[in-house]
Write a structure and sequence with these properties.
The structure is a homodimer of 389-residue chains. Chain A folds into two domains: 24-267, Type I PLP-dependent aspartate aminotransferase-like (Major domain) (Aspartate Aminotransferase, domain 2, 3-Layer(aba) Sandwich); 270-387, Aspartate Aminotransferase, domain 1 (Alpha-Beta Complex). Helices cover 41% and strands 14% of the residues of chain A. Chain A has helices at 24-30, 40-57, 71-82, 96-107, 125-132, 156-164, 213-220, 233-240, 252-268, 270-290, 317-328, 355-371, 378-387, and strands at 13-14, 63-67, 88-93, 111-116, 139-143, 145-146, 151-152, 168-172, 191-193, 207-211, 306-310, 330-331, 333-334, 343-347. The longest helix of chain A is centred in the C-terminal third of the chain and has 21 residues, at 270-290. Chains A and B meet through helix 1, helix 2, helix 3, helix 4 and helix 9 of A and helix 1, helix 2, helix 3, helix 4 and helix 9 of B.
Amino acid sequence: MQIPSTFQPPPRVLMGPGPSDVAPSVLHALSLPLLGHLDPVFVQMMEEIKAMLRAVFLTKNEMTFPVSGTGSAGMEFCFVNLIEPGDEVVIGVNGVFGGRMVDVAERCGARVTKVEAPWGRIIEAAQIAEALKGRKPKLVAVVHAETSTGALTPVEEISRLTHEAGALFVLDTVTSLGGCPVRIDDWNVDAVYSGTQKCLSCPPGLSPVSLSPHALAIATKRQKKVQSWYLDVNLLASYWGEQRVYHHTAPISMNYALHEALRLVLVEGLENRWRRHEQNHLALKAGLAVMGLELASQPGHQLWQLNAVSVPKGVDEAVVRKKLLTDFDIEIGAGLGPLKGKIWRIGLMGETSSRANVKKVLGALVKILNEAGQNIDGSVVLAAVDAVK
Amino acid sequence: MQIPSTFQPPPRVLMGPGPSDVAPSVLHALSLPLLGHLDPVFVQMMEEIKAMLRAVFLTKNEMTFPVSGTGSAGMEFCFVNLIEPGDEVVIGVNGVFGGRMVDVAERCGARVTKVEAPWGRIIEAAQIAEALKGRKPKLVAVVHAETSTGALTPVEEISRLTHEAGALFVLDTVTSLGGCPVRIDDWNVDAVYSGTQKCLSCPPGLSPVSLSPHALAIATKRQKKVQSWYLDVNLLASYWGEQRVYHHTAPISMNYALHEALRLVLVEGLENRWRRHEQNHLALKAGLAVMGLELASQPGHQLWQLNAVSVPKGVDEAVVRKKLLTDFDIEIGAGLGPLKGKIWRIGLMGETSSRANVKKVLGALVKILNEAGQNIDGSVVLAAVDAVK
């Protein structure tokens, strides 16, 4: 065959739904020479990763570590370990990822009750309360930050109702972790999963997870073996725990990257990082407003890190998105499912969340829309951005 | 919490069962800025990876791509897609990884017939023939190169018998691919998985897999949904195929690394690479022989890339292994299961397989054993190494 040339990616500003931009020190960490996965020095680094993940999840859960797969593997990790065939579960569905949870749970043999909300809106606690009437499910699961719609579902009351019903509370924090408050212990979350490529600004490839002691006990005392060998917490606990029993070969370089990415999160400080995400979201929103563009997600529950922008009438969203990529090296995301063609998804996650990037994407959008016949004054847009804090 | 310092790995020569040493250009590829996983430039690179994997597997199978997990995820990929509950399967077990296949298959609901051989020996075709008498299994699976024992099972005759019985042939090439002949189409293999961190000398984190059109048809026509959402080939086919339907976020940086690692394999040439592995194995073996050390695996079927060395009487294998690591920065592997304490596993995989490394590990072993009271003439050992080719 014709052997391909060495790959050289073009420069991009990653303002889609993830991956986000990665800090130079994280890229540097990826390039360090490898250690064996049972090397005492690597094992010590694994311990540091676990401790930093606990700090970022705001949990004391011992069973906190990165699954060796992407966020969807973390989702599957939670469900395969907690569900046995025939178990009843309640799942909130208000976008792609709630729907995915249903699919994963059903593949584990669960009988699923869906609690649905229109895409862009949150799952209301009252809906969960209604679904729990007369039911004794094993678990209730919701998506904290729906990446497909830009909506942030408040989960404290849902968690309370869940535990009142004697169920486990499972939370998807793939897009929320590191970009807005996520408080696993305060919120009494039993099982949580996330991704590295969103607000942690580490490349995709690992999925941080955490199980409460109660959830872990349920996983270890189950009747039937976990259907996935790769994701069985009973095996993973011996590998990531004190025994260091060989299970699989951990992705060494990706763990180097996660170590450095978590360090950067903690050096910045969670509160500072959340505030940065909030302020850049407000700045983007202010600029969009001047342009006559609105967010499609439910007012009062809009994500800071992922902005679903309604495409104005008469504008071909795909053409604009392609121009952003080819003419300005800016990647933004398209709508999915019922929102296909109706929204742009502008990510301001982790490293990407900066005032400079807000201005860059708005400036590019102004140029593209004006070329298409609109008449937006870019300087007014930028002034609105600057006016935020 | 006390934020850990930036991680800096100590230098190591990785001569264990994997990961192996990684070439500088592969480490450089890891450090390149990220692209989105649906970026046309990334998608084009995915196509190149698929083409290069076909060249390395020596197959025309369209469904050839890297699973976003380590080698064990690739194993699980093959079994969850091909097995439905109640299916009968035959699995060769002559080490850790055959045993793991049994566990994974049983979690898929398979009725497993084990064909066993003592650790260190191969699975004989006659044993498979015997197991197939009066049975109509859905698949037969064996491990090509048993990393836990250093034995290479010839598979052509096993494949022939398997197809004669109307079954699919599944092959584990985690340790063989890139280090010795692996001919997927010539050998009529229906499903194969490998790892990146062995003879491809890419960091761990991806698992190259390939399905024949026949295996793919069986996976797509199954009655029951694949129990793993993450590994369902029906979903992955749309993501890695022409449609590019979003499934999960591919590990961008790891795919950069695999692209470069595969390039290096093809630039060297498969035949040259296999010969290099063979010659360095023979050189190591010649040096060991002078020292009175023997390989534990079956004569005539010893792996070139992973050498199981019998620990001489009176020597504490763990002490020697630790000294190699701490005093010489050389990692070798320990024995597993029934071979624990009885063998050292010296890997000569990919980048690690060089004459310099053979001399390095033998020189260090001579020093350590002499310090412990033996009287080995190091110059004679090195002369034996040099005498090979």
